[in-house]
Amino acid sequence: MLANHPNTFIIGAPKAGTTSMSAMLNQHPDVYFSPIKEPSYYSRDIISLEDPRFQRFDDYLQLFSKVCSRKHKIIAEGSTQIMYSIQGIKEILSRVSNPKFIVMLRNPLDAAVSFYMHLLKSKYPDPEGCFEEAWNSIEARKRTTGGPYGKNEIYYRYDEAFLYGKYLTKVISLVNRENVHVILYDDFLKDPLLSYKKLLNFLGINDGFQVKVLKSNKAGIRRSGAFVSILSRFCSLSYNIRHKVGLTNLGVFETLTIRRGKNIESYRAISENCRSRMKQHFFPDIEKLERLINMDLSGWK
User: Fold this and answer.
1) pTM summary value
2) Which residue of 10, 65, 77, 129 could cross-link 102, Cys pair, CB 3.0 to 4.6 Å?
């Protein structure tokens, strides 16, 4: 087995607190966390990588070149798409003895809307004008491949991406159940320190470490206009050059291009009819998940 290869993976789910938990884990002295939270090497079969370098295994391992075996008991990364990739899980198991997987889960209705809002501030926003229109377009999307931009299909299939029971069942069919730790988003919001302590116990490292609770991925939507389009194109085209020189965090760019809101997820609120159809769609999978992880999910139904 490789000495500097990750042994711990946050594999899901999008918009369920994984960025905040990754930042908290990164503070722990026993943990080495990937400097790029989601290199997505082990989900490259289902998404197009933002950084094409991570198509190559040697380049992926370079993210962990500073691991100190005497210091770091946990080597981790947080590619949330791994949960959807059976190929990725199998590759991990072929390279890592007894790997551990962390799964953070959120009410699929809330997660789907939140992810739509997340896409609106990305380089590839959902082409539909509001979430309800995006949900109504799912049947048409099922008849195509690759998503609206010819890539990352799973991101634009809100009906599919949040079927946790379906995908987690596949993961657990390959992985020892005791090596899978599930955290519910609501529990994490209510008491992040307790969720953190339970995670450290699962990982077998010191749970007395005083961590700073961090909130990440503030919601927002992409502004419009020619100036913003030029800035967006510059940042997209210059990504590889900026990454090589360490200029990856463009806070000024984000300030100029992202419009914030106190409760952005209520922006263009979905109708009761759409919410009802979503509940009906996700209900069987929630029931399946509830049995699988032995947790009460009545608040999601």
Assistant:
1) 0.83
2) 10
